[in-house]
Amino acid sequence: MPALLGGIVLMYLYDSALLLYHDEVAFETRRRGVVVDGGLMLELGGRLLFLPNPLTPHRPLYRLSWLAPASGAGGGAASLRRMAMRLSVLAPWSLLLLVLLAVGLPACLWLVGTSIALLAWLVALYTAILAALGVAFAKRRRLALTQRQLWSLARDALLCPPFALNLVRKISLEHSRRLDLRAVLSDTPAVDATTALARVVRARIATSLTFAEAGGEQDGALRGAMAFFERLADDAQ
Question: Residue 132 in contact with residue 140, Cβ under 8 Å?
């Protein structure tokens, strides 16, 4: 039984993890704004392994490039708030699935220990998964999801229930393609989050500058990005 629980945890963490390129950052959002310290960051084979907080699958998760030029319109904090509101209908189902997997399954295995209890848990689990998918299908236009994306989400969730925990994160990650990190930070009202994320980005740029050819195109792009985020941090303070 411990092996079963361990396997569920590993599958959930595997599905949650992101491998970021050197010019990418990942962060969670909540009602109060951006959560910079929402996960664990480790360097792995030249990429950055980002593991979001396993206890907050209901928070939208984004990965954005700090080298991408500002779009000048949209794609900022307002877009994050709109998506957070739209994803709020799925948040309760993510938390319910977390409770069923983290609390319900151990209770069925060790406290009750009967096949009937385990069957009831399995029915409850798949009912919650189907309900969450039903909400996603019903709100697919507001969530800007294609039929292909929806069927991919449904397949993963039904074939591997721990993957269903990341439904909110996967939808918000798809939304990342329509966002601009500079626009997000420029109009984010949370000063602490803006300063902290700008600090993370500046440290990453400083590391990248040590590998860039002086005076080259990459060096110029990196220094331009550094100037933007230094100015942003100064304005936030």
Answer: no
Q: How many domains does the chain have?
A: 2
Residue 203 CA to residue 185 CA, distance in Å, equals 16
| 3-state DSSP percent of the chain in helix, strand and coil, to 5 | 60, 15, 25
Look up the domain containing 223 and give its range.
Answer: 190-236
Q: How far is it, in rounded angstroms, from Cα 119 to Cα 114? A: 9
- Which residues have a Cβ under 8 Å from the Cβ of 171 and sit 6 or more positions away? 60, 87, 90, 136, 143, 145, 153
Return averaged pLDDT per consecutive 10 residues of the chain, 237 residues in all. Answer: 85 93 82 61 77 92 77 66 91 96 90 84 96 96 93 96 96 88 71 70 80 76 79 65
Same-domain pairing of 87 and 8: yes
Is there a single domain that holds both residue 144 and residue 107? yes
Q: With beta carbons less than 8 A apart as the criterion, state whether 62 and 179 touch.
A: yes
pLDDT tens per residue across span 50-59: 889 999 999 9
C-alpha span between 218 and 202 (Å, rounded): 15
DSSP three-state, residue 52: strand
Is 76 found in the same domain as 32? yes
The conformation of residue 45, written as its DSSP 8-state character, comes to T
Q: Measure the CA–CA gap between 33 and 237, rounded to whole angstroms.
A: 17
d(CA 218, CA 60): 31
At position 13, the amino acid (one-letter code) is L
Helix H or strand E encompassing 30 = strand 24-30
